[in-house]
Amino acid sequence: QNINRVYYGTDTRAFSLLLGSWLALCWPIDRLNASLTTHAARILDGVGIGALLITLLGFFTLPGQSSWTYRGGMFFYSLIGMILIATVVHPGSHMNRWLTNPFFTWIGQRSYGIYVYQLPVMVFYERVVEIGRHPVINALVECLLILAISELSYRLVEQPLAHYQWRYLPASIRHWIDFKMHDWHQWLKVGPVVIICFIALCGLMLPSKPAKKSAVQTRIEKSRQATAAKNKQIAKGKTAKVNVNSKSLQKKYGLTSNQLKAASELKVTAIGDSVMADASQDIQEIMPHAYVDAEVGRQGSATPAVIKDLKAKGQLQKNVILNLGTNGAMDSQTINDILTAIGKDHQVYWITPHVPTRDWEQTVCDQIKQAAKQNANVHVIDWNQAANGHAEWFAQDKVHMNEQGNAYFTRLIVKTILKNK
To answer: Quick count: other Cβ atoms within 10 Å of Cβ 142?
Structure first.
């Protein structure tokens, strides 16, 4: 299955919790010897410094799209984190003293709030703001919002609850329900709490319903079914004919009859993710020889295996269209593996992604353009630039196209390929 199953699965992530639990059992703070020899203390400090440096290195070198992350990488860094914590809590080590400062103390006291609020802030902020254009600035804004909300939560929720005398709870409840004792100032405090509790109870009592499929999901499913049927026909050597004189086709795709004729004769293999799956029917409508292999959520790291499989089946044409990068940036090794799997004897047309809601948009675009500079057989289809400023081409998620966007997407692919012929 895709990597989300590994990342979000409790069974595939339990090692972090279990390592911490094991440390608490075998390394109890109240039983550790504070009077270590100088040599032992140096060893402990050295291990702690090493674990800290490896942890910092991991922040910059453990990408979410790398297969190694899910084949031991997360476990390795959890193990390193456990070792770092072991050296910090040991009373004979100097790590705790070295790492103690007002900033770290402030962060530590609010760390649970930061952990809790980071996801909702990111989800709602990135729903409104297109962070892809200015990822660093937007990341700083998100951090400030998370810290501000965590500070308010710490002062107004966590600390009052932590110091509340719970034995007085029955009296407090009687006070809250005594309407005569409340003025409007008190209702400003009690009212929102009552409303939130009521909404929460209603939500808990509502029957769970399966999420409805969006229009994009429904269209992608239909496109995949139609594409699979056409792929079978292509594999058998059967293809539909394109009416190159059709005025409706010429108008829909903005192509002349000569361009439609040339497109209908192109033999291509298109490999991509959900964006390619969504546009596959349009692609095969004017390029009936196009064999499309598109998968929702496809990562760049999974693509070399797909290419090898297509080669083995004899379905990798001389012209290869790639639509990868919607779901995350790729490292240089992954890009090299993809191009090596395709081979120098093929012409590669790589589409730059339009993902304005993700911080990797510009990174992927730069990676594709760099690959084109370094490889003579790689050509850029700059969908990112063409789509910029055309919100009317996209669905609500701003990534997948609507019918109009799919037509422009297909038109750009055809024109770029014909231009390089």
So the answer is: 18
291-294 and 319-323 as β-strands: parallel, antiparallel, unpaired? unpaired
Among 43-57, 212-226, 260-274, the minimum mean pLDDT is found in 212-226
Euclidean distance between CA atoms 197 and 329, whole angstroms: 42
- In 3D space, the residue among 86, 151, 163 whose CA is nearest the CA of residue 113 turns out to be 151
Q: Are 176 and 187 in contact (CB under 8 A)?
A: no
| Contact residues for 352 (Cβ-Cβ < 8 A; gap 6+) | 325, 364, 365, 368, 369, 380, 381, 382, 383, 384, 385
Q: What is the pLDDT of residue 181?
A: 59
Q: Is 307 helix (H, G, I), strand (E, B) or coil?
A: helix
**Cβ atoms within 10 A of the Cβ of 144, count?**
11
Contacts of 92 (CB under 8 A, 6+ apart): 32, 33, 34, 35, 36, 40, 41, 44
Reduced to 3 states (helix: H, G, I; strand: E, B; else coil), residue 131 is: coil
Read off the tokens for 248: 């409706």
Listed in sequence order, the residues at least 6 apart from 367 whose beta carbon sits closer than 8 Å to its beta carbon are 325, 329, 330, 332, 335
Task: For residue 381, give the 3-state DSSP assignment.
Answer: strand
Distances (CA, A) of 227 to 95, 122, 172, 245, 342: 59, 35, 65, 24, 22
125-178 confidence digits (pLDDT tens): 988 888 877 888 999 999 999 999 999 999 988 998 888 888 888 887 777 666
- Are the C-beta atoms of residues 296 and 244 closer than 8 Å to each other? no
Looking at residue 166, its pLDDT comes to: 84
Sequence-distant (6+) residues with CB within 8 A of 270 are: 276, 280, 283, 290, 291, 292, 293, 294, 320, 321, 323
Beta bridge partners of 294: 272
**Structure tokens that stand for 206 in this block:** 């509502």
